[in-house]
Amino acid sequence: MLGVYEPMRKVFALLIPLLLLSGCLSSGEPTTTQEPIDNREEIWDNHSYQFWNVAPMSMGNNSIITFNNSGDFYMALELSAIFHDPISWEQGWVNYSLIYENETVWTVQSNNSINTYTFGMADVVGNMTVQIRASGCDDANDTTPGDFFIAKVHFELVY
Questions:
Q1: Cβ count within 10 A of residue 75
Q2: Which pLDDT tens digit goes with each residue over 55-103?
Q3: CA-to-CA distance for 130 and 99, rounded, in angstroms?
């Protein structure tokens, strides 16, 4: 009966060292993988305002977004704007603008929506100005909240 298992012993005798040494086989040259270089700057910016006054009122804000490098500029803006339509005067609004080198390069105006906007621009060097202007009120004749906007934005510069 031992003679039947003799060929199997020879196979296992060769197979076990091969399995144990299989992790040690290599070309001897170090392998390197090129990791992608992540050259980007990111800025998150939030602005919001709610009007509690009965008569129309306006507000404005300028913010400067500063990047340390030059490259391609990307923006993703989520703008929520709820402005009721009063009986005595015009409906309020919010205007969100990007100004680059004293020129308005992108703008949107809204008075009753929730939207996401994107914008891109190549070869941006220096600062970007965010300008927000809004006009609204609160209607004392109803129970709804006063006019408001919420602007959540993500800026990114890839170089």
A1: 20
A2: 899 999 999 999 999 999 999 999 999 999 888 889 999 999 999 999 9
A3: 6
Domain locations in the chain as residue ranges: 40-158
Domain 40-158 in CATH 2.60.120? The answer is: yes
- Beta bridge mates, 127: 66
pTM above 0.85, yes or no: no
CA distances from 137 to 30, 51, 81, 122, 131 (A): 68, 5, 13, 39, 20
DSSP per-residue string spanning the chain = -HHHHHHHHHHHHHHHHHHHHGGG---SSPP---PPP--EEEEEEEEEEE---SS-EEEEEEEEEEEEEEEEEEEEEEEEEE----SSS---EEEEEEEETTEEEEEEEESEEEEEEEEEEEEEEEEEEEEEEEEE---TTSSSPPPEEEEEEEEEEE-
Strand order across the beta sheet in which 57-82 lies: 40-50, 148-158, 57-82, 112-136, 93-100, 103-110
Instruction: Using DSSP bridges, classify how beta strands 103-110 and 148-158 pair: parallel, antiparallel or unpaired.
Output: unpaired
